[in-house]
Amino acid sequence: MRETNLELILLAILTYTLNAVQCGEVPRPRGVSLAKAALYQPQADGKWSCLDGSKTIPFTQVNDDYCDCADGSDEPGTSACPLAQFHCTNKGHQPVEIPSSLVQDGICDCCDGSDELPAVGCANTCIELGAAAAIKRRNEAELHKRGAEKRQEMISRGKQMKADRAARRSELNARIKEQESLKVEKEQLKQNAEALETEAVEAFKEQQRELDAETAQAEQEPQQMRVEASLSFVRYDTNKDGFVEVTELMVDMNLDRDRNGVVTVEEARYFLDERDRMDLDAFVTLAWPRIKPLKMLADGLFQPPKAPAEEEELPQAADVEGAELHNPEPSEEQADMETGAAGEEEDDGEDDEDQYDDEEPDVGVGEATPEVETTTAAPAYDPETQRLIEQANEARNAYEEVARQIREIEHEVKEIDEQEGKDYGPHEEWAVMDGECYTYEDREYVYTLCPFDRVSQKPRNGGAETTLGRWDQWIGEGASKYSRQKYTQGAACWNGPQRSAIINIKCAMEPRITAVSEPNRCEYYYEFETPAACDSDAYTASAQSMHDEL
Amino acid sequence: MRLTLFVCLIIGALINYAAGVDPTNFKTCEQSSFCRRSRKVQSSGSKYALIRGTLNTYTDSVTADLINKENHHQFTMKLEALVGSTFRLQIDEKQPLRPRYRVEHALKGKPETAQIRVLESDELTITSGSAKAVIQGDPFRIDFYENDVHVVSVNAKNWLYFEHLRQKAQAPAGEAADGGDGAQQEQQEQNSDAVQSPSEPIDEPGTWEENFKSHHDTKPYGPQAVALDFSFPAAEMLFGIPEHADSFALKSTSGTDPYRLYNLDVFEYIVDSKMALYGSVPVLYGHGPQRTAGVYWQNAAETWVDIYTTETNVVSSLVNFVSGSRKSTPPAAHFISESGIVDAFIMLGPKPIDVFKQYAALTGTHELPQLFSLGYHQSRWNYNDERDVTSVSAKFDEYNMPMDTMWLDIEYTDGKRYFTWDKFKFPEPLTMIKNLTELGRHLVVIIDPHIKRDNAYFFHQDCTENGYYVKTREGNDYEGWCWPGSASYPDFFNPVVRDYYASQYHLSKFKTVTEDVMIWNDMNEPSVFNGPEITAPKDLVHYGNWEHRDVHNLYGHMHLMGTFAGLQQRDPNQRPFILSRAHFAGSQRYSAIWTGDNMADWTHLQHSTKMCLTEAVAGFSFCGADVGGFFGNPDAELLERWYQTGAFLPFFRAHAHIDTKRREPWLFPERTRQIIKSALLKRYSYLPLWYTSFYELEQTGEPVIRPLLTHYPLDKEAFAIDNQLLVQQRLLVRPVMQQGVSKVDVYFPAIDDKKNGDYWYDVDTYQRQERAGYESIPVDENKIPVWQRGGSIVPRKERQRRSSKLMLNDPYTLVICLDRQGKAAGTLFLDDEKSYAYRDGKHIYVSYEFADNQLTNRFIGKPQYKSEAWIERIIIAGLGHVPTPATITVNGISQQLEVEQRNGAIVVRKPAVKMDVDFALKLNN
Fold it and tell me: How far apart are CA B827 and CA B845, in angstroms?
């Protein structure tokens, strides 16, 4: 009587949580899984030991809403012990263990509602959830199966590419050897030809000098003379007033005839026919004949002609693989300029240029300078000397051609080695994506992902593209290494770090970016889907192991 | 083009990496002409005297006229006695050219006056209870006594300085022609037939107009400063006048600028500085072993406070304290304000807690906050979108860490238009809010006072059409620059504007939130990016034709009044939660505060306790600092220690700048995660104590967190300690706030001058400290050094939940720590944790007392709240023996309870008594 009274007064709360709760067929304390039911049996004396053996308590104190055991094992069905776990049976769906902090807090966490008192009125949603989960699993398995077929194609293509690379690599190795020995040979030929050329040219120059002494001026072609003179006029006329003045000549130390370190007014006036200034015509006829000898003396007379060689190279270059990277470039740009392209297209051009500025030396697109013309003004040699010069030119060209071939092969080798250095996955399934690019648009930006190369961002309303990162490595954890990529070394942030991006990858039938976010300033996250991630076997295995656990 | 950009980047980087605030953005006293002028009086002194025969005596006050003997300008003085050993002294011009501003809305109501007795002889003695004021006529001076101990003097230094309003001296003809200031001339004309008042010109630049950097202050009313000195003859040190990033004990300002009170948005503020910050609370205390007294200088204009202590630093003061000799002049403070009147409340103590209560009686306290607001707040500028908010909340569950509130900074709005949402990032805010509130969590969103000048924005339309904005001198809407770009500022001084503002919070207007969404008022100094000192120009015009100069420090306060009314009207059953950055005396009635945009370094962590201690004694118990530091990236150790510190400050929120790396606990290694989790759990376990403390704050005015001197007023060594704090009189907290330490020196204060101390029990081990003085305490990375005072009982809840709301029905643990006599006592308050029903008595307020091996409870008021909670265990530390068993008796019926020893304490197993039931628990030998 006395006891009952006390309980009424003190323990109104505890009625439901006492340990005699039935869970399905096997009687066991609330919150205990079937697998652990055997651990919750009273000893003969009605006592029970904590699972960590730390303490023995009356079995009636199991689930009495007071924490007795250090490991929390005496309160699997209440919130009394911080370390305890509550087992939701969730019949019809997956059983789960939830921390004791979720037990009896008024929120339904188990789909069978077993974590809350009946008063809370949790609905049992396990059947529906279980059915939905089963459908989802089926769909996912199906997706992985179908995706795996695509992946298989990617694997074969990737492997083929790897084989091609290896073949090409050994071919290039052989060629580079060939070319190296050819180069030695050509170099020898070149040296021989140049020796002969030098000899002949020296002889010719000697002869020429004698000739010059007599008929220098007279024999010059007036036309050529005028061209040279005009160019000099322009150079001298630094204030561009159409006259060459005394002061403008005084800066040319070649005109320091008495070699006293200063071009005096008198010296300068001598070249200007004792005038203060001269227009072009007067300069050509009066001044240039006086200046030219000093110029020639200063410059030396001979420069080997090389312009034609360069012109020859270009058409050949087109045959060589790898050079096409640069070729479309100038033509596109020219096209833009010709058609007066819209602002956006111009932006594209600029961005592309940016891109190459970063990595490639300037390839000298469409450079045309007035100098080209002056080099054609080579002296007319006697036929024999001319022949030797041409032979030497041919030898030089042949040598250059070999050297260039070697450079090109080396470039290609480097590219292949770089690709070989990239991790295209255990079965080369990612290889086919190198070279592809994918884009995603949100409200403000267009995001690009070029796998194994770079990620970038470009404002939709125009403006420059920003590199968010360059290919770094796979960073998935453990078995799922190939579910996550990292791109680093992007453009530096204002007052912050260099941008970087992480790509989370999931299986899907078609490759695409599904979302991009920037949770930290300058750290981007791409959600990316591709059949390359559809590993059916791995999926089945993980689904299986999950099922086994349950 | 690209090069230019590059150069800009470099320059930008240089500017940005320069550490901390640029002090030249803010004025020095020398650059502020009224401060410069007023400070001069410190060398010359002033001559004010009572005019004989003008004394009037009333039941609770006396009035008399004062004269400046140098310029013969006349003033009226009123000294009023208030209930609770407090006097109010007001001095205004007798006949000012125009009214001078008197602060409104800071006091919680009209202070209750007390009867006086007046004795007139050579001097005038006014007595009210144990408080006494003695007025001397010439020179004018008032000495205040508490029980005949002289505790405060007014104008003992003759530094009273009162610039009467005057007409601008006629400029020479030529100058006046192109001076051409219409308003000013008009003013002069209006006053041409005013009382003949002696108006000697103040011959100084900055008197009638003033420039600072590129900003021009027109100063149409000329010089109008007020200044007065207060001496504290019974004090050894001064403290108060937040907000400054400085030590708790005020430092001498001799040779430095005065402490400045001017609400400012300071970017990357520096510590150990007297520079002004976001809040201004002009209350100052003088403390000595025998007496504590205070002065509340009620003035909302820019104010500078010079501090005179005989010593310049704490060390030398300690030396002096020990030697016990002090013949020199007592510590004093010189308050200098730009405009307004002298309106000073002199609070006479006698003990620290008395003065704090006297101040609370004037300006009020925070009301009992909803329990959730005492839990942990997770904030960041910014959680980017709905998915972000939902997933951060989910992560706390995944890692089984409690969290009560998610915060949204400015980016949630549609282009910084407050009361709107960014519809792309937050398409369904109500769903997102429901996801939080279903787990017992809350959302706080920011609402700043600046209003985007966008003609399509309803708020701007309303304010423009109705003339609700603060005006320029010319009468146009003032336009400043803030987050939205061009912005204007509602004039919250206008009650109509406040009503309008309050109505915007109504759920019928602000439809995209629920009544569970609370509010963060930031930038309310107000912050104006392109304004002088990053705030509003002083010559703006407010409601009532007052200049911004007069009311600046109250702007944030008025903003808060509007918000508070809005939230109360929105849901009269919920206590509003508001966080504010700007604050003034009395703002504590409406909001919690935090220490603003601090930095992720150890010195800022250390200043979090210093600053909150000062705020707490100035009314703002509900104070915290951004955990982790707002600017910069804390390393793991700093973040760990910051969580541990924040867990023992009343307002506990992690927050970070948009440019910082994410720092949610799970982004750190396991070790850090565990340390943070255990700090969070510790916080939650003490929620019943925090909650009870806030109830008692509201009831009594006693701060929730307190400096040691509050309860150890005799211990001079404890006066200046500001890296330790007391939670009520129950806990002593000494957070680890240094890098890489394995031990900390903890000071256990003495209760007398013989070095006797209380017992202190380590809350983790119940190991007892028995003697006063410094102890070196070993700390590992998990240790938060906290002790419970012997003699106290602390209620706790030791069950973990996702959020505090879900703990409502969870059982309590009572922790009883015994004093030398084997006694202890402590209170517990509980109610529905949310509504105002507690004011109708729907609560349980119980005092537990332990003596003679017996614990009893006694209800204070009838317990009228129906609680499901119960007592699950009682821990008793300090017993000499382990009793077996214990007996609990309820309604004459007894039951035996198991007792077990754990660490240095015993645990009584499961009394299982409900909270509203009388019981007695007897320990048997």
Answer: 7
Same-domain check for residues B651 and B614: yes
The chain B residue lying nearest A106, using CA atoms, is B806
B516, B597, B810, B831: which is the annotated catalytic residue?
Answer: B597
Q: Do A101 and B388 touch (CB under 8 A)?
A: no
Q: B873 and chain A: CB distance < 8 Å anywhere?
A: yes
Closest in B400, B870, B895 to A6, CB measured: B895
Chain B residues with CB-CB distance to A6 below 8 A? 890, 893, 895
**Shortest alpha-carbon distance between residue A158 and chain B (Å):** 36
* Contacts with A105 from chain B: Cβ below 8 Å: 440, 801-802, 806
CA distance B161 to B36: 12
Count CB atoms within 10 A of the CB of residue B489: 29
For each successive 10 residues of chain B (925 residues), what is the average pLDDT? 40 45 90 95 93 95 96 97 97 97 97 96 94 96 97 97 90 44 43 46 81 94 97 97 97 96 95 96 97 98 94 49 60 98 97 98 98 98 94 97 98 97 96 97 98 97 97 97 97 98 97 97 97 97 98 98 98 97 98 97 98 98 98 97 98 95 95 98 98 98 98 96 98 98 97 93 96 97 98 97 97 98 97 97 98 96 96 95 88 94 91 96 88
- B802/A6 CB distance under 8 A: no
Interface test with A, best of B799, B889, B917 (most A CBs within 10 A): B799
The chain B residue lying nearest A492, using CA atoms, is: B9
- pLDDT above 90: percentage of residues in chain B: 88
Partner residue opposite A9 with nearest CB, options B438, B661, B890: B890
Residues in chain B, overall count = 925
- Compute the C-alpha angle B460/B465/B468, nearest 5°: 70
> What value of ipTM does the predicted structure carry?
0.89
Average pLDDT for chain A:
79
Q: Are residues B410 and B492 in the same domain?
A: yes
Contact assessment for residue B540 and residue B547, using Cβ atoms and an 8 Å cutoff: yes
| Domain around B356 | 40-162+224-241+281-363
The residue ranges of DSSP E strands in B155-252, in sequence order, are 161-162, 210-212, 215-217, 226-231, 237-240
Mutation site for B-interface testing, chosen from A9, A69, A86, A97 by largest number of B Cβ within 10 Å: A9
Establish, for the pair of chains A and B, how many residue pairs have beta carbons separated by less than 8 Å.
83
B914/A79 touch (CB, cutoff 8 Å), yes or no: no
Residue with tokens 């020898």, as numbered in its chain? A188
The answer to whether residues B390 and B340 belong to one domain is: no
Residue B522 bears catalytic tag: yes
In the predicted model, is pLDDT for residue A365 greater than 70? no
Q: Which of B400, B872, B893 sits opposite A5 (nearest CB)?
A: B893
Which residue of A lies nearest to B800 if distances are taken between CA atoms? Answer: A101
Residues 6+ apart with CB under 8 A from B251: B274, B307, B309, B312, B313
CA dihedral A399, A403, A404, A410 (to 10 degrees): 160
Answer whether A366 touches B (CB < 8 Å).
no
Looking up residue B893, the CATH number of its domain turns out to be 2.60.40.1180
Q: Is B422 a catalytic residue?
A: no
B-chain residues within 8 Å CB-CB of A80? Answer: 799, 872
State how many domains chain B has. Answer: 3
pLDDT digits (tens, 9 = 90+) for B824-835: 999 999 999 999
d(CA B518, CA B796): 26
End position of a domain, from candidates B363, B396, B417: B363
Predicted confidence at residue B200, as pLDDT, reads: 59
Fold of A433-549: Cation-dependent Mannose-6-phosphate Receptor; Chain A (2.70.130)
CB contact at 8 A, B423 and B430: no
